[in-house]
Specification:
- It is built from 10 helices and 18 strands.
- With 373 residues, the chain is of the alpha/beta class.
- The chain has 2 domains: 227 residues, Alanine racemase (TIM Barrel), CATH 3.20.20; 115 residues, Beta Barrel (Elongation Factor Tu (Ef-tu), domain 3).
- Strands 1, 12, 13, 14, 15, 16, 17 and 18 form an 8-stranded mixed sheet that branches.
- The longest helix is centred in the middle third of the chain and has 18 residues.
- The protein starts with a strand and ends in a 17-residue tail after the last strand.
- Pfam families: Ala_racemase_N.
- Its cofactor is pyridoxal 5'-phosphate.
- Keywords: Isomerase, Pyridoxal phosphate.
- InterPro entries: Ala_racemase (IPR000821), Ala_racemase_N (IPR001608), PLP-binding_barrel (IPR029066).
Length: 373
């Protein structure tokens, strides 16, 4: 069975790097754990590392977190469905909201459950995903203030996830100004502006995050050590917190080009081949993972010279090249994974999940970002 490994020591290192960065800049941060898909083994590793709030967009995952750690503060980070109001109040200490009707239901449930439910009002800042239009924010806030057992603890925004709109100093200053206007008009204080996510982190190094932006929500940079703004890596952090391992179930010398009349394959494509490859062959291996569990375009073999040729529903086809490692049937091959690869594998019951606690001594990227002392 193929499996994904979480390298806990590398995750802990990445966490310490980010925690130091945010402390130095007087910014609070929460961890977006939706990538872990509610897996109890991996969630427990994360909970052992941090005392931060945990964010997720799946209610079942927040329920699992509360079961593992009842006192852990949880945040539901998408506008709740109305039908989930009761469970949102039960399992999320904070939720992100944009609809008054939904907030009214959350208020009713908070009264019934004798709780104060805290909310962040999301503001549209150009990404055109979730968010209250700025022109409606003041009247919206005034309405929310009237709801019993609802406490507005922040304004927030989402960028980069749908249309790729990047955060910049101008947008963040504007968001901070929205908060000041709301406070001036209402006489109420709003403690947080959750204006930052992984994509906003590079702005910290350029001193382009206004002082009012005091809360970040971070997932990708923690788990992958990525500079999302530049689509590159963060020096001093590990990019291989996760690895995928699959077993070779067949290895044969086969022609490079298939024979026979070609129709469409499983994914609706008709592959094309170069005539130059006619008569040639290559050493091919099949490993025990496929499109049901992974998109082969999102992974890369960690052994140099191995090329991914394609995949079917539950098999991945490789060209082993010179087979420099003298691999045989029964051996395993490790693959690096990007965010979408991990997300898909984590959501598959057919990929086992393992935790590695080995001590690591190398493998850090070493560009411009300074690591921990």
């Amino acid at each position: 069975m193929s499996y994904i490994t979480l390298h806990s020591t590398k995750l802990r290192h990445n966490y310490k790097v980010l925690d130091q960065l945010f402390k130095e800049n007087k910014i609070e941060w929460a961890i977006v754990a939706k990538l872990l898909c509610g897996n109890t083994k991996f969630l427990q590793v994360l909970l052992d590392i941090t005392d931060k709030e945990i964010c997720d967009s799946r209610l079942s995952n927040l329920k699992t977190i509360k079961k593992l750690s009842p006192d852990k503060q949880t945040i539901y980070i998408k506008p709740p469905a109305k039908r989930l109001a009761k469970s949102i109040v039960k399992f999320a200490d904070v939720s992100f909201n944009t609809e008054l009707g939904t907030l009214e239901l959350l208020s009713e449930e908070a009264v019934k459950q004798d709780k104060i439910h805290r909310v962040v009002l999301m503001v549209e800042m150009g990404e055109l995903r979730e968010g209250i239009m700025a022109r409606n924010l003041m009247s919206f806030y005034d309405e929310v203030l009237q709801l019993p057992n609802i406490e507005v603890v922040g304004l927030g925004t989402n960028l980069n996830c749908l249309n790729g709109i990047l955060p910049d100093e101008k947008k963040l200053i504007k968001l901070n100004r929205f908060k000041e206007i709301v406070e001036e008009n209402s006489g109420e204080k709003i403690p947080y502006i959750s204006g930052g996510s992984s994509v906003t982190i590079p702005l910290i190094f350029k001193n382009e995050v206004p002082l009012g932006i005091n809360h970040f929500r971070v997932g990708e940079t923690l788990f992958f050590g990525t500079n999302v703004y530049k689509d590159s890596v963060m020096a001093g952090m590990y990019q291989d917190v996760f690895t995928l391992t699959a077993e070779i179930i067949e290895m044969q010398e086969k022609p490079t080009i298939p024979s026979g009349n070609a129709g469409t394959n499983l994914t609706g494509e008709t592959p094309t081949f170069s005539e130059e490859e006619k008569g040639k062959s290559s050493l091919r291996a099949i490993v025990d993972i496929g499109l049901l569990d992974i998109d082969h375009k999102d992974i890369m073999a960690l052994i140099p010279g191995i090329e991914i040729i394609g995949a079917s529903s539950d098999m991945l086809i490789l060209d082993l090249g010179e087979n420099s490692e003298n691999l045989e049937v029964g051996d395993t091959i490790n693959f690096s994974m990007n965010y979408m690869a991990v997300l898909r594998a984590m959501n598959s019951d057919y990929v086992d999940k393992k935790v590695d606690t080995d001590i690591i001594t190398s493998g850090l990227s070493n560009d411009e970002f300074v690591c921990l002392n």
